[in-house]
Amino acid sequence: MKNLLSIEELSAAEIAILVNEAAKLKAERGNHSEQPLAGQTWAMIFTKSSTRTRVSFEVGIRELGGFPMFLSGNDIQLGRGEPIKDTARVLGRMVHGVVIRTFAQQDIIDFANYSKLPVINALTDDEHPCQILADLLTVHEKLGGWEGKKVAFIGDGFSNMTRSWIWAAKILNFELTLASPVSCQPPKDFLEHLDYDGLKICTDPAEAVAGADVINTDVWLSMGQENQKEKEAEFAEFELNADLLKGAAANHIVLHCLPAYRGKEISEEVLEKHADTIFQQAENRLHAQKAVLVALANG
Question: Using CA atoms, how far apart are residues 145 and 138, in angstroms rounded to an integer?
């Protein structure tokens, strides 16, 4: 594996290897037998704000023996209009790998092409692959795996989170149901490109949750959309609450990638009831990303 740019580009075998390696690294934390990033400097270019992603990557790189170099959009010439390809060609001669959290998916594709470095997508408007790997690790820990499981996602049906979940469902062949307002559902051209019968789409959260083993939600407005109040108003009936969960499978789990807005996409009661799982999911960002770093270090 040379880069992690999207879930779409991974195979089922690669996902399984990453999840298994993440579980191993989690069990060995503090007693790693190898430090595959020893002597390496990894640049972290973030043009979007972050808590979990930044902390988990900085800690993970250090625990694997490397040195993280954090660069915000305001710290480097990208913020003044330098072309991405020029920044990439400069850093390609100085550092050993790059973690990028930005808006356009094409920017990380271009960065990988011009830098010739291992590049990790730490979130774009199109995908959030590191989060999905952490989520799959959590499903593996809590339910023993995703085989035969029904997953529901309540909220924006075409956010970076849902796109990554959609690709994971196709690649790993599990059932995924999206409950979303019509205006926030995947468009026809995406669905034709996807070509997967295991994806179900509806406008009724109760229909999506019925019999679901994993119920997932996220903020209604992604970063950069905070002022779109008209979009937020469309989600009035999409709160993940206790009444809605009555229809879920008996041993269901609830996931939220955080930050959470209680009283909007999830109720206070549900978040606190499932807090152990949700914060285990947050911790698993560290372990999943370390597995990605190890895979890229090993080529």
Answer: 9
257 catalytic residue (yes or no): yes
| 29 carries an active-site annotation | no
Catalytic residue among 257, 281, 287, 289: 257
Q: Which residues contact 52 (CB under 8 A, 6 or more apart)?
A: 258, 282, 285
Q: Which one is catalytic: 96, 101, 274, 287?
A: 101
DSSP state of 151: E
In one-letter notation, the amino acid at residue 135 is: D
107, 126, 130, 131: the active-site residue: 131
pLDDT tens for the chain, 299 residues: list them: 999 999 999 999 999 999 999 999 999 999 888 899 999 999 999 999 899 999 999 999 999 999 999 998 777 777 667 899 999 999 999 999 999 999 999 999 999 999 999 999 999 999 999 999 999 999 999 999 999 999 999 999 999 999 999 999 999 999 999 999 999 999 999 999 999 999 999 999 999 999 999 999 999 977 665 666 778 899 999 999 999 999 999 999 999 999 999 999 999 999 999 999 999 999 999 999 999 999 999 87
Catalytic residue among 218, 256, 274, 289: 218
96 catalytic? Reply is no
Catalytic residue among 128, 163, 252, 256: 128
225 is catalytic: no
Q: Which tokens hold the place of 209?
A: 């949750």
Burial of 283 by CB count in 10 Å (0-12 exposed, 13-18 middle, 19+ buried)? Answer: middle
Domains of the chain: 12-127+285-297 (3.40.50.1370), 131-282 (3.40.50.1370)
Which among 54, 274, 285, 287 is annotated as catalytic?
285
